[in-house]
Design goal:
Length: about 120
Amino acid sequence: MPAQWAAVPPQVSNFPLALGILGGALVLALPAGEPVRLGLRATGTQLGAGVLFGIGNLALLALVARVGTGTGFTVAQLSLVVNAGIGIWVFGVPQPGTRQARKVLAGILIAGIGGCVIAAMR
């Protein structure tokens, strides 16, 4: 964890991450050579996702500081279980009942079992 090595608070270490995300978005958008315009709904969705990501990232950093890097990072990665479930059942990507959705659900199950094993070993 570079932020821990630098001994800076989580709020300060989040700023370079935000700049990196902005830079990556610009690299992807600028070569198109035309304005990138999102509708109001898409913009709201993207901004909401960004806010949730920021809150989750700060929570991850606080968790890691509280319980240690290995345990905290592992627990935080289990948020993928929630993200994948929301993707399938709320947004329908991939469509529920398809082969891809079953693969994602199998991955969720494996991640959940792994999280339980790690928690039991602690």
